[in-house]
């Protein structure tokens, strides 16, 4: 592909209790996350493999391993990508199988169609901070990007039948102008998540708080990564006020 882009449908959410936010201010949350259950599919042969995997996850939380089912479940406050890395450092492939918790998960992969083809793959998760206060923790890992900054946005529709051309505009229930993640709600699209940075290997790893979105806002919508960085609506042309001049999807 000439341009880097990804999109995915949100899969759903699961109820769980969360600790309340311990402090918040206008542009930043300081929060305490409760544990979340993360499940990985891991091929293990024999009890020695189980012990190796278990040892690799020491300090990560409560670990439950079912060797026959090839299942590793971790109750943790750590990002899922860190748990995956710990397991894969043992020489075993760890495939993310699912999350517990009040969250929405976007799986980014190949479409399998001729409409849009991409080698970009990854997972983005939106997790509620509290049950009674707006805001989500956004964390994820995406591979296959070109090094540098790329815009990331929630789009209004989850229809990927036509690739990125059918996901609609940025999610914008307040009919606000395009802006930056730290802008006031009436000065940014709800789907404006700013930029993520891919390293020299093409991997972007990120974890941040968005104070406007809620988990149920994103169910059934889509996530798009763009070729260029987002200028947050600060450019001098009309396109800047639409998508931050972030380029092709």
UniProtKB/TrEMBL annotation:
Residues 237-249 have a biased composition (Polar residues). It catalyses: 2 superoxide + 2 H(+) = H2O2 + O2. The keyword Oxidoreductase applies. Gene3D superfamilies: 3.30.70.100, Superoxide dismutase, copper/zinc binding domain (2.60.40.200). Pfam families: HMA, Sod_Cu. Coiled coil: none annotated. Residues 120-249 form the Superoxide dismutase copper/zinc binding domain. Its EC number is 1.15.1.1. InterPro entries: HMA_dom, HMA_dom_sf, SOD-like_Cu/Zn_dom_sf, SOD_Cu/Zn_/chaperone, SOD_Cu/Zn_BS, SOD_Cu_Zn_dom. Its cofactor is Zn(2+); Cu(2+). Keywords: Antioxidant, Copper, Disulfide bond, Metal-binding, Oxidoreductase, Zinc. This is Extracellular superoxide dismutase [Cu-Zn]. The lineage of its organism: Eukaryota, Metazoa, Ecdysozoa, Arthropoda, Hexapoda.
């Amino acid at each position: 592909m000439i341009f880097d882009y990804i999109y995915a449908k949100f899969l759903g959410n699961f109820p769980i209790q969360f600790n309340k936010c311990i402090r918040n201010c206008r542009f930043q949350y300081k929060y305490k996350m409760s544990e979340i259950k993360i499940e990985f599919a891991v091929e293990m042969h024999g009890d020695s493999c189980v012990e190796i995997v278990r040892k690799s996850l020491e300090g990560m939380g409560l670990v439950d391993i079912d060797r026959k089912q090839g299942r590793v479940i971790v109750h943790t406050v750590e990002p899922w990508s860190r748990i995956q890395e710990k397991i894969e450092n043992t020489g075993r492939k760890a495939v993310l199988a699912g999350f517990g918790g009040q969250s929405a998960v976007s799986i980014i992969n190949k479409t399998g169609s001729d409409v849009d083809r991409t080698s970009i793959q990854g997972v983005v998760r939106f997790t509620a901070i509290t049950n009674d206060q707006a805001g989500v923790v956004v964390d994820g890992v995406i591979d296959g990007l070109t090094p540098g900054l790329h815009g990331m946005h929630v789009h209004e529709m989850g229809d990927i039948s036509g690739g990125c051309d059918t996901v609609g505009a940025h999610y914008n229930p307040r009919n606000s102008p395009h802006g930056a993640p730290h802008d006031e709600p009436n000065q940014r699209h709800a789907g404006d998540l700013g930029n993520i940075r891919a390293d020299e290997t093409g991997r972007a790893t990120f974890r941040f708080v968005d104070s406007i979105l809620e988990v149920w806002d994103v169910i059934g919508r889509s996530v798009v990564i763009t070729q260029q960085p987002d200028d947050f609506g600060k450019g001098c042309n009309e396109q800047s006020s639409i998508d931050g001049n972030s380029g092709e999807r």
